[in-house]
Design goal:
This is RGCVC family protein. InterPro entries: DUF6307 (IPR046274). Pfam families: DUF6307. It comes from Amycolatopsis halotolerans. With 117 residues, this protein is mainly alpha-helical. It has two domains: 2-56, no CATH class; 74-116, no CATH class. The chain is 47% helix and 0% strand. It has helices at residues 2-7, 31-42, 74-89, 94-110, 113-116. The longest helix has 17 residues, at 94-110. The relative contact order is 0.09.
């Protein structure tokens, strides 16, 4: 711990009490932030702040995504492809195409492999 504190000692660029790595005071660091900033300073790394001492202004590209991405299974992707193909080639409704696509994929999946070749 003493070696970590030594790595966090104020430098010429950092005023007394300021961390040489992040924009926070060293006395505001928790043990994890102490280790993180010490390793960052020792390795001369350039990485974002991991302190819990307070939020810092983040650049636009560092902000978390707010758009929700829904998971679509491979099975659902297959059904959608078959449904869209049926919709293009037949005059069936969306509901009928969906039901037929599910039935066709079930038939294909249940067919023994030697018959599918």
């Amino acid at each position: 711990m003493i070696a970590m504190r030594a790595a966090l000692a104020p430098t010429a660029a950092a005023p007394s009490g300021d961390c040489p790595v992040c924009p926070h005071q060293t006395d505001a660091h928790d043990p994890i932030a102490d280790r993180f900033c010490a390793a960052t300073a020792a390795g001369a790394l350039h990485r974002r702040c991991a302190c819990a001492a307070g939020g810092r202004e983040t650049k636009k590209e560092e902000r978390p995504m707010t758009a929700r991405i829904d998971f679509v299974s491979r099975y659902d992707q297959r059904v959608a492809k078959v449904r869209d193909l049926l919709k293009q080639d037949t005059g069936l409704t969306d509901t009928a195409c969906q039901a037929l696509a599910v039935r066709l994929l079930h038939l294909i999946d249940e067919t023994p492999e030697d018959l599918r070749r």
